[in-house]
Design a protein that fits this description.
Blueprint lengths: L1 E6 L5 H12 L3 E6 L10 H13 L18 E9 L2 E2 L1 H10 L7 E8 L4 H12 L7 E5 L7 H14 L2
Parallel strand pairs: 1-2, 1-3, 3-5, 5-6
Antiparallel strand pairs: 3-4
Helix pairs in contact: 1-5
Length: 164
């Protein structure tokens, strides 16, 4: 089975988990990082105001070109930071642009957060995708900035569920 990990990362936590997952899975894995045409502020108060507003308003910012052919993949793993208890808007753009191509794929998702809201964000992604359940789902708390044994166990568990 071929797997695509599709993620957006502002602070590097989501990218960190994508890299860890890709090393643990036994299948062929492609990593697709989503980047916006116009970058979000990534420091200070503006980061939270602009990111939170964009998430709450369900915005779909334009993305830089990326290479994705759904026919190549049996499994799709989505990764995102939690913004205001929602998925990061770049992931919303990707899903809306590719939703019809994702039908019939095994979908998994992971969320990275500094506080809370990941459960609501994961439910929101399921609704956006129009699916009832994930093959696997996991929540990580600042995994790059605060690496620990518990996160490694979670990564192993997540990968085990994906390959089931």
């Amino acid at each position: 089975m071929k797997t695509a990990i599709i993620y957006y990362s502002m602070g590097g936590n989501t990218a960190y988990i994508a890299a860890r997952i890709s090393k643990k899975l036994t299948s062929d894995v492609d990593i697709i990082e989503l980047t916006t045409v116009k970058a979000y502020p990534d420091k200070g108060f503006r980061k939270f105001i602009w990111g939170g507003k964009s998430a709450v308003m369900s915005e779909t910012p334009p993305l830089m070109p990326y290479s994705f052919n759904a026919d190549y993949y049996d499994r799709i793993i989505f990764g995102f930071p939690v913004w205001a208890s929602r998925i990061a808007p770049p992931l919303r753009t990707f899903v809306q642009d590719n939703k019809s191509l994702l039908k019939g794929k095994k979908i998994s998702a992971y969320a990275c957060q500094a506080g809370s809201g990941a459960d609501k964000a994961l439910r929101g992604l399921k609704e956006l995708l129009g699916i009832s359940d994930y093959s696997a789902e996991m929540v990580f708390n600042d995994p790059k900035d605060r690496p620990n044994e518990a996160n490694e166990k979670k990564i192993n568990e997540f990968c085990g569920l994906i390959e089931k």
